[in-house]
Design a protein that fits this description.
Shape: globular
Number of domains: 1
Helix content: 25-40%
Number of strands: 5
Number of helices: 2
C-alpha cells in the first residue's frame, strides 16, 4: 500500500484535546490494525474515524501527528485533505498547525 493516501473529510477536536479524523478508505483497506503501531491510535469503523486515545496530550498538533505517524508506520500511507475539510472544535488559529501535522508532505 506504500504511497497511497487516505482522504480526510473531517477533523474533530475532543474536549480532552485529542484529535480524531474522519477518513474514506478505499475498498479493501481495513484500518483495524492501526493500533499495532503502538501509538494509541485506533480505528472506529462505525464512524469511519481514526482516533488518538493516548493518555497524555501535549497539544492538538502532537495528537494529530500521532495519527499521521501511526498510519504511516502501520500501513505506509499518508493523509490527504478531501476538498473542504470539516473542522469541529478547532479554532481557526489551530487549523493550520493541525493540518501541517496531519498532511505533512515531506515524509
Amino acid at each position: 500500500m506504500d504511497g497511497e493516501a487516505l482522504r480526510v473529510s473531517a477533523v474533530i477536536k475532543r474536549s480532552t484535546g485529542r484529535i480524531a479524523v474522519r477518513v474514506e478508505p478505499r475498498k479493501g483497506i481495513d484500518l483495524q490494525f492501526i493500533y499495532r503501531a503502538g501509538l494509541s491510535v485506533y480505528w472506529c469503523s462505525a464512524e469511519a474515524l481514526l482516533e488518538d486515545r493516548g493518555s497524555t496530550v501535549e497539544s492538538s498538533e502532537s495528537s494529530s501527528g500521532r495519527i499521521a505517524r501511526a498510519l504511516r508506520e502501520e500501513y505506509g500511507m499518508a493523509l490527504q485533505p478531501l476538498g473542504d475539510v470539516q473542522w469541529s472544535g478547532v479554532s481557526a488559529e489551530e487549523q493550520d498547525r493541525i493540518a501541517a501535522a496531519l498532511f505533512d508532505r515531506s515524509r
